[in-house]
Amino acid sequence: MIRLHEDRPQSLEKAASSCDSSCMGIQALAVAWFVALLMLGCGRGLDEARPAPAKIQGDQASPPRMFSAWYTESLDGIRQLEKRDAERLERRLAANPEDLTALLQLLAYHDRPDRRNRSEDQRKRVKLTLWLIEHHPESEILRSEMSRFNPGELDDADYRRATVLWEAATRAQPSNGAVQWNAASFFRGFDDERYLGHMEAAAVADPANPFILRPLAYFYARALIEAGPLGARAQAALDVSKNKWVLSNTANFLQGEHNRLLQMEVRNHRIAELAERYFLRAQALDPNLDRRAILPQIDLREIARAERARMEAAQDHQRQAEHASAKLRRLPIDAFPELPPTVAEALRTRNCTVPQSSVEGRQNVIRGEFFAKGETGWAAYCSANQRTALLAFRSGQDANPRSLNESEDAQYAFTLESGSVIYLRQITAVGRDFILMHYRTYGGPEPPPIDHQGIDDSFLEKASVTWYFHEGKWHELQGAD
After folding, report:
1. Which of 71, 205, 232, 457 sits a CA distance of 20 to 30 A from 225?
2. CA–CA distance from 273 to each of 224, 230, 252 (Å)?
3. Percent of the chain with pLDDT over 70
4. How many Cα neighbours within 13 Å face the side chain of 385?
């Protein structure tokens, strides 16, 4: 099977291994219906359709929203939900199965990064999704990530059940673009034939929706490049298509692959010819299409010059960073009189200065309960010999701190317009709410039981790592992303 799907980090490679005769019959009808409507111009004139903000269109209208205001507003506060909140939502949904707000919030809770890999949460997500397919196949929830599944998340019985439900829904509403789009979203990665059939039907029903047309064009382009059975089907559809957005986006994707291969010193005339063919078909429908935007050309000599310039700039940046490192604003230990004498002496013994993340004030020496609840310790950046280590002290009497990490100062030295140089790292003491919020938002390692503070080690405006001490060792937890 070709893998053409962009949204999920992993491709979905499970479920239906073959299509039975009834399935093939449905697909044959879908293909015939799709090609016939394409020849008629996708069912209605493009000028009468709503604005079509595909990537390379000429219109200036604002793109449609993929999700409604209700959808986005319903997801507010999902990161704060506790187990008791989910149980309350379950009771609410049991009392009123049509409460789609509660259903959406439960789906989002079970798909939250801190929960999505748990088997119990996966089972509940499957159950909610199957109910939606049966009762509301048009729901925008069904094209969201939380209603899609990875290998192992659907057993054979659930997949067969979903297939039966989608066949019934799409047969009952063949001209409903939302239903067809949702069905395609479900089968993406499971079954390329079903995915393509439903995407084509969705494009017929909604011929100016970029969220449908661009993935369909990308699928066509990849199928043409790989030149298998789906490539022949894609070519047949494109050769009769009257949808300029499908044609122009397919041409654009093909040209992108052609350019990528050129940069690898590989010339593929077939891909270039296909890109030209479908651009010309699109241009015949709309003479105002911009050739340079759809079929961007590359100059290999210019690319080589740009690469040399990039390497020279990187080397120059490294030299500047090393020079800036020597001018980095660092404070002596005496600038932090709040430090206990033992801690201050341990830092002086290591010839530490403290790099600063601003031109004023004092940063990067902090106090908190970093090793145990009720036990106050300290943490500080220690810069010596153009390198900085993060040191953690168990208490005010600790003369032997733990070194959590170490890096070259030049990596984080930044020169301001004023000429001052600051350190683009900063440490702060953080508690349970901060740690759990970031875990629920971004996933990462599951935190141990939290009863004291952690140290958030932040690369400013980029990302951070939270250090947390538990059972004798430091754990590297998810910080900001």
Report:
1. 205
2. 12, 19, 12
3. 84
4. 4
Q: Report in angstroms the alpha-carbon separations of 41 from 170, 181, 205, 263, 367.
A: 22, 20, 12, 37, 69
Q: Is 209 exposed, middle or buried (0-12, 13-18, 19+ CB in 10 A)?
A: buried
Measured CA to CA, the distance from residue 401 to residue 14 in angstroms comes to: 50
Q: What is the DSSP letter of 359?
A: S
DSSP structural state of residue 377: E
First to last CA, the chain: 34
Please say if the pLDDT value at position 473 is more than 50.
yes
Residue 32, pLDDT > 60, answer: no
Write the pLDDT tens digit of every residue in 42-69.
332 222 233 333 344 434 455 678 899 9
* Res. 378: pLDDT tops 90: yes
Instruction: Characterise 265 by phi-psi region: left (phi > 0), alpha (psi -120 to 50), beta (else).
Output: left
Count Cβ atoms below 10 Å from residue 297 Cβ, excluding itself: 10
CB atoms within 10 A of CB 1: 14
Contacts of 16 (CB under 8 A, 6+ apart): 159, 163, 190, 191, 194
Pairwise CA distance, residues 59 & 189, whole Å: 32
For 73-106, write each residue's pLDDT tens digit: 999 999 999 999 999 999 999 999 999 999 999 9
